Amino acid sequence: MTNEVQAAQDELVEEFQFFDDWMDRYQYLIDIGRKLPEFPESDRTDANKIRGCQSQVWFVASENDGRLEFQAISDAAIVSGLIALLLRIYSGRRPQDILDTPPNFVTALELEQHLSPTRSNGLSSMLEAIRNFAAEALEAV
Description:
Layout (H helix, E strand, L loop, with lengths): L3 H13 L5 H13 L22 E8 L2 E8 L2 H14 L4 H6 L4 H4 L2 H4 L2 H24 L1
Antiparallel strand pairs: 1-2
Helix pairs in contact: 1-3, 2-3, 3-7
């Protein structure tokens, strides 16, 4: 049985197959990054900053009815697009599903090959933060 996290990853990979080249994929990332929901100024604190990102990234998690809700923003266009992908895959999901599902979309979309090393590190840092939030939510139960 496919969980919601895996289903969201599969859907995303399928969506990216519509783009013939990486310039179109970058443009798509930038476009979806521009549509991120408003991020409260009050949450742009050092405590909410993701370490390991070259650009500024703020990331906040909350739990609602056994599901994790994520909010994030960056000052860089491509990184905002990566955030939009992560929110689509992980926000509103159960912590156990997040932990049980490897981030296969990173390889499937060939993100490591097409992102600069610093952006790749940033993506890894954001994924690690999401997994940490999920682990903490399970421990709190």
